[in-house]
Each structure stands twice: as C-alpha cells, then as structure tokens.
Amino acid sequence: MPSKVLSSWKRAPRAELDEVPTANIPTNPIPEDFDADKIFDSVAASLPRLKAEQLDDQAFWRDILALTGTWRHLHGSSRVALKWNELVALRQLSNFAYVRGSAHAARIGSGGFVPGRFTFDIGGDWTGTGSAIVALYPDSNGDWKIWFLSTFLESVDGLGSPDVLEPVVQTDGSITNGHHANGVREDTASSNGVNGHHSLEEFDVAIVGAGQGGLSTLGRFKAIGLKALAIESHDTIGGNWTSRYDGVKLHTSRYYSNFPFGKHFNSEELPYYLRPQDLARGFQQYVADYGLDVRLSSKVESATWDEETQRWTVTVNTENEKWSLRAKHIVFAIGTVGAFPARPEIPSEESYRGTAVHSTAFKNAIPWAGKKGIVVGTGNTAHDVAEDMVDSGLTSVTMTQRTRTMVIPMQVFKPLHSRLYHADADLASSDRAEWGLPFPVQGAVSKTLFEHWRKTDPALYDDLESQGFKTEIPNLVTIHNRSGGHYIDVGAAQKIIDGKIHMKNGLISSFTPHGLRFKDGSEIEADLIVFATGFNVNIRNQVAAIVGNEIGELLEDSGGFDLDGELRGGWKPQGHPKLWYTAGEFGQCRFYSRFLALQIKADIEGRRFQEWKE
After folding, report:
1. Are 136 and 267 in a shared domain?
2. How far is CA 329 from each of CA 194, 195, 232, 485, rounded to the nearest angstrom?
3. Smallest Cα–Cα separation from 207: which of 316, 332, 335, 306?
4. pLDDT value for 147
5. Residue 10 neighbours by CB distance under 10 Å
6. What is the pLDDT of residue 126?
7. pLDDT at residue number 199
8. DSSP percent split of the chain into helix, strand, coil, nearest 5
9. DSSP label at 500?
10. What letter would DSSP give residue 175?
11. What does the alpha-carbon distance between residue 477 and residue 491 come to, in Å, rounded to a whole number?
C-alpha cells in the first residue's frame, strides 16, 4: 500500500529548455592584481545579511541541503537576497570564513569571474557545518559583486561522516573482501532466505543495482554507519559495463572515474579512456577493499511498502531461488544510460533482410566485415559503433544525423577537465566545482568557452561540416537536459573528416529490404543497422514495475530540469517515504551520493531534514 504522504505530493514539471533561467558571463575584465584575501574577507563579513545591491541583477544561488533542506536553485538579486537572509536566520548560520588561497581568477574572453570557498556553522535543529563557493566580478565602478553562490551541507553533528571509510584490513595487514566468489557476503548468506532460511534480515538500506551509482552510494552508507546491501542482476561486479558493446570506452579521464574512497583508476598502466574490463576490475577491487555487501545474479522482483512498520519487504530472485529482506529505505540505482533503450518505430522493418539492433544489443561488427553498415544517431555511442565498424573492415559505414550535434573537441575539453581531475586531485573539491555550481552558470561558461574556441580554431568544426556533419556549440545545460546527445571527440571525428565514416542528414521514412529510405527519397543499403538513439532516462516506469503502479504513478520523474533550473529526480525525496533514485555519470554519482547518505541517516535517526518551501 502507498503511504498517505502521496496525497500531498506534486511532481515537478519538466521545464522546456527556453524556460530554464540563463546566465551570462560577466564582461568586465578581472584586474591582474587584486587582494583576494581582503575582498573575500569582506564578503564573509557580509554573508550573515546580504543586500540585493551586492548581487548581480541575474545572480544565481544553488543550495544542496545546507539551508533549504533539499536541492534548490534561486535566481535574481532581490529573490536571492530575500530568501538567503530568511534562511540564514532560520538555520542559524554563523562563523562564515573565507578559505585562504582558494580564490582564483577565471578569465573568459574579456571578462570572467573569481570564485572563492567559504565555510560556516549551522545551528538550529540540525547543527553542523556547511561550505560555499561564492563567485565575484568587478562592476563598472570597480566594486565587487556576487554572480553566484553555491552552498553545501558538509556535516550534521551526531550523524557521522559519509566522506571517510577505511579499507577492511586483516590482522596480517592484507585486504579482505568478505565475499564468496558469487558476491554474497559470508556473514549474511545464511539469513537471507536462501538455502531454506526464511527469516527476513533487516537492513537500513537496500540498493537495487551495483553500477557506479549503486556502489558509490553503498560505500557512503557504510562510511556513515548504515547497514546496506546492493542487489545486482549481473553475475559479476562491473557486469553492467562488460555486457556492453566491445568498443565502448569512457570519454572522460580515468581519474574522473574513481569512487568516493580510494583511487582505483589512477594507475599509469591503465588507459586514459577506460574500457569495460578496466572498469570491472576497478569496481571489483573497490568492493573488495571496503568489504561491501553485493549480491550478484540477483533480480529484485518486487518491493512492498508496509505503512504500519514503515518498512519495505524486498523479494529477490537469485538463480531461480526466491528470498526476501526488509529495509527501512530502498534506493533504485538501476541506471539510465545503457539500461533502457529508446528506439524509434520505423515502418516496414519486417521487410528488411539484414540485421537491425539497438546499441544495447550490439557487441561488435566483426561478423559483418566486408559488408555495409549504418549507424542511426550521432552521440557518443554512435561514434563508438561507427568507429568499430570501420576498424572491423566494413566496406561502407554511414552515420545518419537528424539534428545538429554538439561536438566537444578533446584539445579543449582535456585541459579543462585535467585541471580538476588528475592523479593528485582532491576529488571532494573538484566535484564541488564540477557538479555543485548552478546549472545556468555551467551552461554559460561552457557555451562561452566553446564559442571562443570555434572562432579562434575553427578547423575541426569546419572539416566536419564539409563532410556533412552538422555541428552545434556545446552547452552543458542542453547536454544535461537531453541526458546526452553530444560527442566528446576521442578519435572518431577524424574518421568522418577522412571520409571513412559517411554522413547522411535527414529523417528516415522506412526500412527497405536492403537498408533505409529517407524522407528525401534516397536509399542507403546496409547489411547491419545499429540504432544508437539513446535511452529512456526517466526510470519511474521501471521503478513502478517493482513497487507497483499505485505508488509508481505518483513518484517523481527523472531527467531534465525543473522551472528553477535544478535537475529532476535523483538523490532527493521522490514522493513516497524512504524511496530514492540515484543515477548518472561517475562524478555525479560520486558527489551526490554523499548527500543521499546524509538524508537517509538523518531520517533513520529521527532527524529528517525539513524542506523549506516558499
């Protein structure tokens, strides 16, 4: 039965892209010499009570749990100042202090901004600590104004820390994983209902899925003192990656892929762009090093809510044996990218004599060597698949493009990315800078940087356009809104420029016996057609299949932005007590999982965060 709380829940509507607030990079030049300590100390003194005139007219504030008790974006100087002062008083914030040496000028074009970090104490009902990033710029009079603020809950007294976890060490100094080969923990296997044991073991949290989202969260839960397990359908840890197509590789650095604890992908022996087997080994080592409880070859069939006991009963099928557990909370870490394929319905597929599959069912193109291939789509996966077709010896490879595609050149992306993510990086600070800023600010910075690069070094875009590949200036807001639909160039662009991958623009009208027909009447023949057309990132229907439609119909959607510019879905209350989502890429999962752990621990301790409502 669903909780009575559902009757008052309102699902956040998805904003159209033009409804999401937009930011503009300040255009006034940053002085070459400025006294950061003096300027930011002055800001610290003013933070207990801000005045609207201290802020840019279009100022942004993003808060994660510190003041609003949830995840919020606020926009505009008057609104930000008003709500900031209200919440500073309500949460009894004090002791604002600038972190010496943290300010640095971010010069972009002729303008830019200067971000600096702050710490503060939180009083009231949940005493603890918080941190902030405040970005300043000089106005036309030389006075420093606030362009944006980001605030984060760092700790709550008595809850423990989600940020510190020591490896499991035996008395002889060796690391142990506490697992059988099948991933079932030795100390729990006898009490979970398998092998004739029918007593229900109780957990603080049951996590459905053990990819990067599930494992990041599982580690955070152990760090903060929660009894948790992850239930994974694959038969190996990391199977969510090794089951994908052979040519898959990450398009971000190995340093970015680390979990919250340990740096399992820092080895110089690893490639910069990790492959599935690299990821699987790192996943397995992480689970082993920290003694995490992962049940493999196990599918969650249902989760039933008991209003009286405030518990979930989770029914699991492990290799055709059913067992159950009880949990105070359930977290769905079932993935988005790669999990639930989206494929357009195209007429006359039954007439096609070749092979047509979604990228989730594609392994490699070797069986089609000497034949012709088509890739439908132009995102990261499409480029990987097209490159694999070329490398596998297909005589003709064509990529079809419906709309313009954002291409992120590696010669621009890698230097920016490497400033935050490298062998010696402090991931906590890097993640706050990468994933903690207001999204409109991220969009403005990315768009301005790539516009500048295109003007100064247009060769890549011009060469792609000359081959029929229609490009678009990258904007992180658009990328997050689409949950993809872009390409970080790790090599395939050159194959397009060299004519090894052909381009076809326009809409597909139908299959033919030998390939695809397009709206312009043209036809392209192919023996293999791979649809790299993305994934359904809204996991609500998949969750409903487990918890039941009565609950599922009233849960939050995932994907896209709300009207204030905050991401919808993961890591926050979903409309039913003690039910949560987590999903996303490595950095997202690593950083946001700490806030999920804090919320669940607070709830279990009877100190649930109270969401501020306007």
Report:
1. no
2. 22, 25, 17, 33
3. 332
4. 98
5. 8
6. 86
7. 63
8. 30, 25, 45
9. S
10. B
11. 24
CA dist 302 → 297, 308, 545, 548, 592 (Å): 16, 19, 8, 8, 26
Which CATH number belongs to the domain containing residue 77 in this structure?
A: 3.10.450.50
DSSP secondary structure letters along 188-246: TGGGSSGGG--PPEEEEEEEE--SHHHHHHHHHHHHTT--EEEE-SSSSTTHHHHTS-T
- The answer to the question of residue 610 being in a domain is no
- As a whole number of angstroms, the distance between CA 271 and CA 278 comes to 8
Give me the phi and psi of 593, to 5 degrees please. Answer: -65, -30
Residues of the chain with pLDDT under 70: 1-9, 169-199, 336-339
3-class DSSP string for 7-28: HHCCCCCCCCHHHCCCCCCCCC
In-domain check, residue 167 = no
Rounded distance, CA 565 to CA 20, Å? Answer: 5
What is the number of structural domains in the chain? Answer: 3
What pLDDT is stored for residue 9 in this prediction? 57
Provide the token pair at 322: 């059913």
**pLDDT at residue number 339:** 57
Tokens 């969510």 locate to 240
Helix (H) or strand (E) holding 60: strand 55-64
DSSP assigned state of 53: G
- H helices, E strands: number in the chain: 15, 25
CATH number of the domain that residue 571 is part of: 3.50.50.60
- From 531, 549, 572, the end of a domain falls on 531
**How far is Cα 296 from Cα 520, in angstroms, rounded to an integer?**
49
Within a domain: 41: yes
Domain housing 370: 349-531
Same domain assignment for residues 276 and 407: no
CA 365 to CA 501: how far, in whole Å? Answer: 14
DSSP-based three-state secondary structure for 537:
coil
The predicted pLDDT at position 192 comes to: 40
Q: Which two tokens stand for residue 257?
A: 């892929």
Distance CA 561, CA 56 (A): 23
Distance CA 584, CA 592 (A): 10
- Assigned domain for 171 exists: no
Q: Which residues contact 594 (CB under 8 A, 6 or more apart)?
A: 162, 163, 220, 260
CB-CB contact of 3 with 306 (8 Å): no
| Three-state DSSP state, 442 | helix
Please give the structure tokens belonging to residue 563: 């009207």
| Same domain as 368, residue 517 | yes
Residue 150 corresponds to which amino acid?
S
According to the model, what pLDDT value does residue 12 have?
A: 80
Q: Do 501 and 379 sit in the same domain of this protein?
A: yes
Written as one letter, the residue type at 541 is N
Residues 379, 518, single domain; the answer is: yes
Do 396 and 279 share a structural domain?
no
